[in-house]
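ok so I'm stuck.
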Amino acid sequence: MIRLLLFLILLVATFSVFAVSTTIDDEQLHFRRLSAVDGLPSVYINTILQRHDGLMWIGTKGGLSKFDGQNMFNYHYHANNTNSLGSDDVLSLYEDHQHQLWVGTSKGLYLFNDASDEFSAITFGHIHPSPLIFTITQDAQNNYWVGTNKGVFVFDSQRTLIWQGLTDKAIKFIGQSSTDKVWLGTKQGLWLINPLDFSFTSLSTNNAIALDVAELQIYDGLIDNTLLWLATKEGVIKIDTTKLTIIAQLSSEQGALSSNNIWSIAKHGDDLWLGYFYDGISRFNTQTGKSTHSVYHPQINDTISHNNVSKVYFDRTGLLWVATTNGLSVTNPKNSVIRQLGEYQNVTNKHVWSVARHNEKIWFGSEDGLNKFDLNTNKLTTFPSSQQQGQLPRTIIWSVVPEQNNVWLGTNQGLMQFVTADSQSNLFENKALTENNIANQSIYTLKHFNNELLIGYYNGAIAKFNLASQEFSDTILHVSEGYITNLIHDQDHLLVASQYGLYRVKNGLTEQILPNSRLANSHITALRLLDNQLWVATLSDGLFVLNRQDQQWQVSKHLTVDSGLPENTVKSISSDLQGNIWAVGRNAVYKIAQHGFKVTLFTSQFYWLNMEFHDNATITTPDNLQIFAGNEGLVLFPAKIINRQTRFPKLILSSVQIMNKKFNNVGSDHHIIIKPDEHFYSFNVSALEYLSPESIKYQYKLTPGQTVWQPLNSSKITLSNLPYGQYQLHIRATNSDRVFNDHELAINLNVVPPIWWTPVAKVLYLLAILILVIKFILFHKGRLKRMTYKARHDALTGLPNRDYLLNQLKKKMLHAINEQQTIAILFFDLNEFKMINDKYGHDVGDNLLKHVAQQVNKCIREKDFFARQSGDEFILLLDNIHQPSDISNTIKRIKSAFQETFVHNNTVINFDSSIGISLFEGDKKVSAEELIKQADRAMYQCKKHNTSYHYFTAEQ
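replied:
not stuck anymore, here's the structure
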């Protein structure tokens, strides 16, 4: 057996000398602080109000602010000439039944107009100057009751003053009970008024507590069903509003309160929350009588901002707001079960590197001593380092393993033993073995298995230490090049995590697990073995989940940022009784389902925690208590009460900027018109998350066009030069745990075109274009018709020309063939036409030709085709000839038409014609051109024989 040289240090100092004990509160409130650096106009906060839209309004000595959680107090209202607010000292705020905002100041009362972003002053009759406004409320008759330093004023719904009273009293509280009585709390006593006739009612003198209500100095109050709770200079007074009697008084003398001087009171569930004059806040449970106290600490960033509390207030989501004279704070009281033991709870050092639990005691080691926390008594006992002989030296305690009477420590100076039993003598013993030079080597990890300590060293070695014999065994040097971060006993071997990968050690032999994978060179920070599933946390590559297959480990899942982790750095992991894995990164806390690997982030519970967790500094306890350590101490919480955030913050459109104009009060109307000359527009949205707004993520899409959600780097969307038309901008946000809400905010955008590009203008343009197109078509159609006519007709007579004649003749021939009909071609010219031209001139000849064309067209059938061949030659096509008389009758009509007198310069010019006829009968094989030639030859035969007409015969 290899033996190692090591100091065994027995620390058995007398506890009363070296140990220091402190009782820790079993609940802690963790606040988000807001101050001038966050944008508050003044750190002196007078009042707080959440309006119906979820926005918080903050009244300060330096003005009024609107706060959406995301945009840090960007909306300030100060006393100036532009908005008519008369004073920067805002004392009270109230939203009435119609959602109008009333603002009470040190110089009067004002009503805010959301649409115009302006204030209007409420007049108090003859009272001048205007009084200080301490409180405002509205009764069941919708009358407004205003408490001032000059008494109470009542206005009707038209804001007309209808009553005033107690003009010598300063009214700090006004409330209406179920008995329809109005209670007035003043610095000079308690008063009860009937709101119908403004008569006063006396309280009963049969009180359980001997107090004179006329002597009470009242600063605040609330009515809860039939109970009236008053914050006074004498503590909390409890009154039965039905019996009009005082039934209880809570005071510091009874131990119920931290102080009797209370400025503000609020109730949430069974808890009364009290804000003190220079003594912080406290919570008093009305059922159990338990009281807890919270105060400002200058070095703890998550306490309230100051001990002088002006108002405690609960918003509609259950968040507690604490206004002080030096800043504003907000918290979720449900998170008070999460506790932190750090520097300001007097641990030995805030850098805690190791933690372990034995029964109901938690042991944790820091850079400067050992600590013990008793879960039963909430007592913290610290054992700081000392230079005295036999005491714990100044060293980092990397690992802690408690036993019944001992605590074993893995430190920079080797293995140490701290004896916790009082009967032990004080020893600091050195048992020396010199083999392998392992003495005093830094130990990073210790694990207890059976009756042995498994030891992992900073130099990459491992060893075992037998607790019974206090001897070392199975020392293996150089398991890894880096330090050993974790050890797990698995079946018959050890799983060893290191700075450079994962190893299996069996029978003195070392084998790297998955040497060719991404895990091989990863810095492993923690291991957790669940059933046959090994979870491996790394410093920069997320989480690996390994499954055992045939005694070999294989990666079944690799979890990174891409698969839902908040970051790829995983510093430590643990598990709960349900089999979930709990993990921490640099400052994130989240849970992963063992099956399905769903990641649930818990930013909403740990928004206040500015801690970087340390490697492998965590434990899982039998009662599901999760414990993580880091550079700000220890954090512990029961896993069963830390649930996934199901609430989503309300998403609002907080402001719109179009060109250089910004609109801060958009309201619920999300129909935005963008004019033609407006080319730039941006939209600020806010998810009303007041604890951790920096964790909110946003996405958007613009329809029509975009169907996939696009990520946003901030809560501002900027668009420009959208084409004219209507769009819808869709925006959605996560809650603080990075889960996206299915409900979205839709903003309707109407990019209005100029008047010359409106729908009406487009219709007119379309009609104009349509008219132009029709005109173009008609023009070209007419032109084509004219061109066609000109190409097919004689320019002089208007008769069809030779080409047109041939085309028609061929068609008629095809028809005649199909129908077995006869066609007659009449070819005629004017006799002595040359002589007429020579005698009277060509103009007369042309007129004669036109005269002939007109006369012939008058005497032929509509279906007959009459054309000019050339010169004085004309051709007439007659189809559907049944008998020769059809032709002769037509010729007679033509001859008769030629008898119509043609006169030129009072001279009658006679004319006649010779007509040649050719026939086409459907069975003939002859062309159109040949038929015309035949008729031409017949015409010459007519001239030769001086006949009226002549038929073509084959002999010709």
